[in-house]
Every structure is written in C-alpha cells, then in structure tokens.
Design a protein that fits this description.
Blueprint: H1 19-51, H2 82-115, H3 120-133, H4 138-150, E1 160-162, E2 166-169, E3 172-175, E4 177-180, H5 184-212, H6 217-245, H7 247-250, H8 255-266, H9 272-295, H10 301-323, H11 326-331, H12 336-353, E5 357-360, E6 363-364, E7 369-370, E8 373-375, H13 377-404, H14 407-415, H15 420-450, H16 462-474, H17 477-506
Length: 511
C-alpha cells in the first residue's frame, strides 16, 4: 500500500509575527530611543549654554592656570597651563593608586592567611582587624588618619627623628632626596635586565627539576659559588652593623672582613644553619636598635638595646627552626645565584660607568626643614587609609580562595612530607589564585576610584585639581567631566585587561 507523505510547505506567517524579525525590530527601536535621548540631552545642554553665553571646546587647556598645587611630581606653578594641572592631578592619582595597590596586596594576603592560622591569637587578631576596618566608612578612616593622627604630630622643631635621616611632624614626612647623576640610568637598566634574567633562570631551572628530578649541574655549581659570595657580603654587613650596636666590637680592626670570611667558610659545612642564623640575628638586632631608638628616644639606651636584642633572638630562633627542616630546604630553589645576579650586575655597571647616587639630607633650619623630600600629610593619610581599608577586603578574598581548594590537596601535600608553610606556598596558594584574582581585580578598581576621596582631605589628585579648581575657574563642565570620566574608564579597563591576562596565565588547564 502506498504511503502518502505530506510534503507541503509550512504555512507562511506575516513578517511581524516572525520571532527573528520581531527581535531585530525591538532592538532597532530601543537603539533609536537611546540615540534620541542623548541627542535631546546634547541639544538641550547646547541651548542652555548658548543662553548663558558660554562656549564649548578644549582650548582652555592651553590657558594659564593661575593657581599653585601643594604636591606635584613635575614642576608646576601659577604660570603653568591647565593641561599641566590635569597632568599633575593624574600623576598624583596614579602615584597613590600604585602605592596603595602594592601595600594593600601584601597586607591583605598576610591577613587572609593569618585568619586561617592555627595560632589562636594570630587568627583572632586578623579577624578583629578585618571586621572593624571593613565596616567603618573609608571617608571616616581618612579623616581619622589625617586629623587625629598626622595633624596631631608635633611641630617642626619637635619632629620625631627616625633612622636614615627621616623626620615626622605635622607637616608630613621628610625623607632624604635621591640625587642621581645621568649615568645612573645605565645602572637602572642593568638592574631591570638582571631581575628579568634571574627570574628566567629560576623558572627554567625549576622546569628542568620538574622533568628530571634535579637542578642543572651548572646551576648547582653556580649556586655554591654564589652562596659563598653572598654569605661573605651579608656576613661583612652583619658584623659592621653589630659594631654599631656593640661599640667594643666596632673598635676591632678588620673584624667585618675576617668575620665575613669565617661565616662564608662555615656555610660549606653542616654548621651552615648557624652561620645564617647569626647573620640574621646581627642584622635584625641592628635594624631593631635603629628603629626603636628613633621611635622611643625617651627610653634608656640599655632598654632599647636589650629589647631589640630579644627581638633579634626570636627572629634567629625562627630561622634556625626553619633551616633544620630538610624537606623544606630541599624543595626550595637555591636563591643565592639569582640574588648574586641581581646585586652583582648593577654593581658592576655602577663601577664601570662611574655613576654616582648621592642623597640630599633634610636639615632643620629656623622655621622648617631645608632639603630632602617632603611627603605631605594629605598624601600619607590617603595612602594609609586606602591601604588599610582595601587590605581588609583583599584578606577576605584570600581566605575564601584558600578555603575553596579541596582539602584532599592539602592532605596529599602533607603525605609528601611538606610542612605547613610549603603546603601553602607550593600547593594551596597556586590553586587558590584562580578564585582570588577576579574579586582582587574589583578591589584594585575600587582602590583606584576611591583615591578621589583624597579631595576631602585636600590631596591634589585628579578630582581635586581638575574637577575642582580647574572646573571652577574655567566653567567648562562638560569638557572637564568628560576628560575625568575618560581617565577613570581608561584606568579601570587597563587594570581589568591586565588582571584578566594574569588570570588566564594562572588558570588550571584541564586535559
């Protein structure tokens, strides 16, 4: 029996009932409505400006500004142009954002790890810090740092004197000003090349070890030689600093030279752990002595020396305990070789080119300091506020990223004999980064945009200088606001693009 198939075409519908055509039509209508709205806004604004006899255009950028700025990275005075004022505000914003991102990242990671610490005191301290800081408005914190802390510092003549010629008073922080000559450029270039080369060497050696189970032979030999040189240099430095703490040792001639050689020779024996611990103790003692002596100058000298010695002993004891862990020591790359490369290459170029790097030390005169580099309190308060506030949110991102890693990964690392610190550094953190980076990008964007709150305490960033003073003087509201919005949009998109690239680099690759 023949079967009849229904080969007739489906009934045709009207074009206005076709879902595809209807979707396109709706999108065209919405786009036309948006364009019409913006055209109406622009025409209405132009009509209002014309009624007020105001012109538009960017020619105001090349007019003389007629005002000064309290803090600038480039020369600026009343005769400078408005585009130079814009550049000053932009550079000040970038400076605060870069410093804040750097320190908030370090502090946030430390706090995030500390909140998960098995030490009860450290974990509770991190928790209290995070819960308090993230629940207090940032503007209130900026006012606290500016008015209650920095503006409450002593007057100029009663300034706090810190080591290395640093002074703190109600006018800010005065530090020595570096005075490099032209040849120092080659040293900077050499240092950058040395850092890149050292990182490339470390990555290549680690990849070889992952494939073969051991580091290349010339890396081992170079690391041993570099270890001797680096130990001698640090031993010389440690004994020279120790002589400043204990004057009796400083009076012995050639003690740093002989002691450095002895510590370097000791590093070739099984007693090398004690050599490193002694160097760490001496340097830590000297640094603590300088820091505590500058901050608590009213204390007796013996108390400062004794307390700093106790701190140094604790640090050396920690180093001793870490170095005794064979599993931890074997899993780490010998860092002496890249350290020597980073130190030796710029030093060699410095010696060959005859470069000179002097420092202009601040000198207290009758009413103020002369020389040095003054960091205004507005900038210090803004950096402190942004860093401390953003670090609390980054710490929560780090904590959530670590807790997102499967517990089996930690147990597997522990079964290999890795200590807690090595498990965190080698296994947990690399896997947690794929969870940490997306919210970390948002925190970087927030920090950059929150720098505009510096206008509330008088810091001359972009909003304060350009949207404040420049807009008030020129009346070019549309142009000034458009430029400022374009700057923040560019900064945000650039930061997002870089972090997305980095996120793709650290993402897990599944086969």
């Amino acid at each position: 029996m023949a079967v009849q198939h229904n080969l007739a075409a489906p009934p045709r519908t009207a074009f206005y009932n076709d879902p595809v055509i209807r979707g396109i039509l709706y999108q065209v209508l919405v786009a036309a409505a948006v364009v019409a709205f913006f055209v109406w806004i622009i025409m209405n604004t132009a009509a209002n400006l014309a009624a007020q006899n105001k012109s538009t255009g960017f020619d105001f950028l090349f007019q003389t500004s007629g005002f000064g700025i309290s803090f600038s990275l480039i020369p600026f005075d009343r005769s400078s142009y408005y585009w130079e004022a814009f550049l000053v505000g932009l550079l000040n914003t970038l400076l605060v954002a870069a410093i804040g991102i750097f320190f908030s990242t370090i502090l946030g990671f430390v706090l995030g790890v500390a909140r998960l610490s098995s030490n009860w005191l450290i974990a509770r301290f991190a928790t209290v810090y995070i819960e308090i800081i993230r629940n207090v408005p940032l503007l209130l914190q900026l006012f606290f740092w500016y008015f209650a802390v920095l503006k409450a510092m002593p007057a100029v003549r009663e300034s706090f004197e810190l080591p290395l010629g640093i002074f703190v008073n109600q006018r800010g922080i005065i530090v020595p000003r570096p005075m490099p000559d032209a040849e120092i450029t080659w040293v900077v270039v050499a240092a950058i090349i040395a850092i890149i080369g050292a990182i490339a060497l470390v990555r290549w050696a680690i990849s070889v070890r992952a494939q073969t189970g051991h580091y290349p032979s010339f890396v081992k030999m170079g690391s041993q030689i570099a270890g001797l040189v680096v130990t001698f240099l640090f031993g010389y430095l440690a004994l020279a600093l120790l002589g400043s703490v204990v004057p009796a040792l400083g009076s012995i001639p050639f003690l740093p030279l002989i002691g450095g050689a002895a510590l370097a020779a000791l590093s070739l024996t099984p007693m090398s752990v004690y050599s490193r611990a002694f160097i760490g103790f001496a340097i830590a003692w000297a640094i603590a002595r300088f820091a505590l002596g500058g901050m608590f100058g009213f204390l007796p000298e013996l108390a400062v020396v004794g307390f700093s010695g106790l701190l140094a002993l604790g640090y050396a004891w920690t180093m001793l305990g870490t170095d005794r862990r064979p599993a931890a020591r074997d899993s780490k790359f010998p860092l002496a070789l890249p350290v020597l490369i980073i130190i030796a290459v710029p030093a060699l170029i410095y010696w060959i080119t005859g470069a000179s790097l002097a420092f202009e030390m601040p000198l207290l005169e009758r009413f103020n300091f002369k020389g040095g580099l003054q960091l205004v309190p507005e900038m210090v308060a803004l950096v402190l506020g942004l860093t401390i506030y953003t670090a609390a949110f980054i710490a929560e991102n780090v904590r959530s990223g670590i807790q997102a890693v499967n517990k089996g990964q930690t147990e597997a690392a522990a079964s290999l004999g890795l200590r807690e610190g090595d498990r965190l550094r080698l296994v947990v953190i690399p896997q947690a980064m794929r969870v940490i980076i997306p919210p970390l990008t948002s925190q970087y964007l927030n920090l950059t945009k929150n720098s505009s709150l510096g206008a509330a305490i008088g810091y001359p960033e972009l909003v304060n200088v350009f949207m404040g003073t420049t807009l008030n003087q020129t009346g070019k509201a549309i142009e000034v606001i458009a430029i400022t919005m374009a700057v923040y949009l560019t900064l945000s998109l650039s930061t997002s693009a870089f972090m997305n690239w980095y996120n793709a680099r650290v993402a897990l690759v599944e086969r």
